[in-house]
Sequence to fold (278 residues):
Amino acid sequence: MWIAAALVTTLSFGMNNTIFKWSTGHGLSKVHIQFYFYVTAFMLTLGYGISVGALRFNYLAMILGGLIGILNANGNIQMSKAFEKGPASLTSPLVGANAIFPILGAAMIFHENITLLQWVGITVILGSALMIQYSPGTNRRIEYGPWIFRVLLAILSFGVLGILMKTTSYLEISSLNTLICMYGGGSLYLGLASFREKENWKRSELNVGSLVGLVSVIGYSCYFYALQEGAASIIFPIVSLNCLVVILAGCWVFKEKLKPYQLVGIFSALLGIIFTKI
Fold:
């Protein structure tokens, strides 16, 4: 079941990233959309927690959950700024490599036993994710210093986020309370970021953000369940394949064409998942 939950998370994250891709092409603010989706998700999770009487907050849940929300929001912001400064062909694959940090953390910190065949599968999955996202060739002017800085911040944010998520599961902190704190902390951070950016607010950003928030609640709920029940070292590389959903959605929605190396990446990703389950 935890493999299925990880795949649902992959699908959810892929759907949201596709929506972000669409919104960027329509001139919508990614910061505003994130703010609305965090607020929507916060209200949904808080409302559910109140209705079932499951609110059990403590300082650890508030701190870890808040940090996870801030790191996720900051990682997305830094990645979007990296796209503005440098080659998109390298930005996505490099940022996607952040999965190696929580994988190593699961093995070294939480002492998860990873077999040689599973290591092969993990390596194949991560390599496939990098291959699928890579897009050679760019004619844009590159600001290497700011670009590398943003990429490193995004990798660090997403990498630490993964380790903290596994930590909450390891400490048996309620996933619902963690989610509430995560969305609450992210909402505050994005509210400040929106105020600093001083962009014009649009009604369509509320509509898109609310949809993303609903999908995010489903995705992260499955994510925490998978981490509680399964091996984080396998879950993280599977979730990193959300880029595959974006690529396939691009073919369907934006009429993009799959490149031969992306097809190879798709088949090798499926092969990697099989290896991790053996």
About this structure: The radius of gyration is 18 Å.
